[in-house]
Amino acid sequence: MLVVGASIAGVRAVQALRRQGYEGTLRLVGDEDVPAYRRPELSKRFLAGDLSVDQIALATPADLDCDVLLNARATRLEVADQRVWIGDAGADPRPYRFDGLVIATGAHARRLRVPPMAGVHVLRTHQDAELLRAELATSPRVVVVGGGLIGCEVAATCRSLGLAVTIVEPTGALMSGAIGREVGARITELQSGHGVDVCVNCGVTELRGGNRVESVVTSGGREIAADVVVVGIGSEPNTSWLAGSGLPPATGVLCAPNLAVVGARRAVGAGDVVAWKSSGSARPVRMEHWENAVRQAETAAHTLLLGESAPGFDGTGGLFWSHQFDATLHVLGDPRAADEVRFLEDDPGRQRAVACYARDGRVMAFALLNSADWLGSAGRLVRQRAAMPLHGTGEPLRR
Amino acid sequence: MKVVVDRSACQGTGLCVAVAAEVFEIEDDGAAIAHHELVPAEWAQSVREAVSACPVGALRIVED
């Protein structure tokens, strides 16, 4: 069996295959230079300088009962012959035959379409974080382009280091793509309250500078001085190696409800690269969170061992979290699937909010700001698709 | 089977509660506790999933 992609989804797939009883040859292939590490730390404590990449290691090759190839990149999938071509540490790619394949190649950070310029960063890998961290030591003025999860966490870390930070966000509220404008407004308040200059309804029209960036120009015509720019405008699945494989076109690797890869035999997908088609929904979804990768890896391994009759992945109960300053946000379920949001608790003074999201009156998701005491009951309501609680104030969800 | 929470490592991500709300809870200090150090057999599987899901490796199983 071959697992392509050696971050959380790949590592958990290897562990799940062994735990579920697979005793044959198992090879894990990753294109980074170090064994798997805890990527969520990169925008937080790792960036703040408290941790080394060893200290955020997920599992060393010795922990995993398999062959591990690092610095190795899959370049081609041959569906009919069940082979993957892999270039190992710069050597010419050679074919590896598989009886079972896990595609867990993840995603890469989307970049602005501008010529390369020093001082402009993205954050996805430990190397990205180390480059950015080195620049933060010179007390730069930081502009974060894109107020999503990564952008907000980077802004909070930089501001906590005492740096001047601006976030430029095209929608009306931070994190609105993931949690809607109503709850996003609480994140905007949180960031502003800690001295981050939050520029909402603001696109970026230009990065100015020579070899090195000097300023960011917004759609409103404002020019913001910048020594460092961090671009957090989402990610794109790592599928370029699958070009020519004949897999159906999709944003990501299209997978059936049980995570079997559509258009390939003996192949499953897990993690950020997967475009998952649940049995109920019309459109496939990509879920780019740690918890989703962990659970998809478990289901994918099961499907690989059991075959196509394996039960579907349960996508209802997902969770992601964010730490920004002293606040913790938990999001259960998928607010993007909702059409209504209702605050069951809202206490701006204590920066506490409990927001329930529903579609057709049924609970789809919760966002909990400094309200971890709600995790258990919120999770139950989401999994049960319970009726929307009627207290609090409801309003249509806006993005 | 026992489950042990390293409260100094715990970051309060809440994944353990999402996976096994019967066993784990986030306390007011933002770190998780296990209500049942000795895990009842019916929850053993979900506790194993919680250990696997924890993004900071703060949960550990001690088999009997």
Word description of this protein:
The complex is a heterodimer of chains A (399) and B (64). Chain A is an alpha/beta fold and 399 residues long. Chain A folds into 3 domains: 2-108 and 235-306, FAD/NAD(P)-binding domain (3-Layer(bba) Sandwich); 111-231, FAD/NAD(P)-binding domain; 326-396, FAD/NAD-linked reductase, C-terminal dimerisation domain (Enolase-like, domain 1), CATH 3.30.390.30. Chain A is built from 7 helices and 26 strands. Chain A has helices at 8-19, 45-48, 126-136, 149-160, 176-193, 290-306, 375-384; strands at 2-4, 27-29, 67-69, 72-78, 83-88, 94-97, 101-103, 107-109, 120-121, 142-145, 165-168, 197-199, 204-209, 213-218, 223-225, 228-231, 235-237, 253-255, 267-269, 274-276, 319-324, 327-333, 340-347, 352-359, 362-369, 393-396. Chain A has a 6-stranded antiparallel beta sheet with strand order 21-22-25-24-23-26, with helices on both faces. The model of chain A has no long low-confidence stretch (mean pLDDT 94). The model of chain B has no long low-confidence stretch (mean pLDDT 91). With 64 residues, chain B is of the alpha+beta class. Chain B has one domain (2-62): Alpha-Beta Plaits (2-Layer Sandwich), CATH 3.30.70.20. Chain B has 2 helices and 4 strands. A two-stranded antiparallel sheet of chain B has the order 1-4. Chains A and B meet through α6, β21, β22 and α7 of A and α1 and α2 of B. Chain B: Pfam families: Fer4_15. Chain B: InterPro entries: 3Fe4S_ferredoxin (IPR001080), Fe-S_cluster_ET (IPR051269). Chain B: GO terms for molecular function: 3 iron, 4 sulfur cluster binding; electron transfer activity; iron ion binding.
